[in-house]
Amino acid sequence: MDNRDSGERSRRVTINDIAAATGFAASTVSRALSRPGRVNVVTRERIEAVARELSYVPGTHTRAPALGRAETVAVLVSDVTNPFYFGLIRGTQHQLKAAGYANLLIDSENSAELESHMLSKLRQSIDGAILAASRLTGRQLAELDTTLPLVVINRRVHGVQSVVIDSPSGVVQAAEHLVALGHREIVYLSGPQNSWANEARWRSLVETAGRHGLPVRRIGPFPVGREPGAAAAEALISTGATACMTFNDLLAISMLARLRERGVAVPGEISIVGCDNIFGADFCHPGLTTLTAPIEQAGRVAVSMLLARLGDSGSRTNNGSASAARRSAVLPTQLVVRESTGPAPRRPRARAVADR
């Protein structure tokens, strides 16, 4: 054997090597080696033969067939203290319990690194994962999905199953509502830069305002939570705008408190629209106009999609492949109008309010 062959053999053979040699997708190779019952006999035998020929040794990411199902699904949320996720947790738990699965809840703390670490660490102990507001890149998610079945919520990634809450269409409703009230500039209080939903909402607002020939402005980003509310309110005041939309309700509710301290009337001087319709949005003062999101339904749909891929539902192909599972679902949102929005003031607000 020459040096080149020796160097090639010294590198651990991966699933991607087997995929290249057989012409099958890496996901098919992974299923054939970890869950052979989900791949037809001819395909499995071909993959197993090439694996032996290449001296493939399963790594920690490959579940031994003898271990069978863990009957556990990981549910990752970006911030477990955010009321937005309460419905998601309830929906996934109820659906998984009905199917005989355990629900392993993980708080990724808005960290892609922690998310990746926990999924890698738990890969031997779970059958799949549902990721809400994942901070991983699309490429990372697509690669991970080849060895661990995934469903992502509020994210679109090519080749990965997804449940998307259509907040961009809700943003259109909100923007049209503000325009009908006479507002002529809308400010967007931005959430995390690595949030897919944040970017989708901003694009929708830009497009809708553009159709009316109105300017929009984006300020932030602001961290998720209530703490940034004071800073966001101060930044909004300085723009002189009469209307704004926020990334989520937590930010909007905390802004209401700061604006009240500063003597800025809502909606008399500024109208505010939130997003998510979390618990508390209806009895803060004033009640928050916001977009309602079917988050509990999203959790249930995500579980159904994942279990279909795992073969635990009636809708699958003869070889149990993921092709029978639904690849994506879009759930509608709608605007809930409360007291935080009203007609634009007759006189434009000053650019700054220095002596409140």
UniProtKB/TrEMBL annotation:
One of its GO terms (molecular function) is DNA binding. Residues 13-67 form the HTH lacI-type domain. Keywords: DNA-binding, Transcription, Transcription regulation. The keyword Nucleotide-binding does not apply. Pfam families: LacI, Peripla_BP_3. PROSITE patterns: HTH_LACI_2 (PS50932). InterPro entries: HTH_LacI, LacI/GalR-like_sensor, Lambda_DNA-bd_dom_sf, Peripla_BP_I. This is LacI family DNA-binding transcriptional regulator. It comes from Streptacidiphilus alkalitolerans.
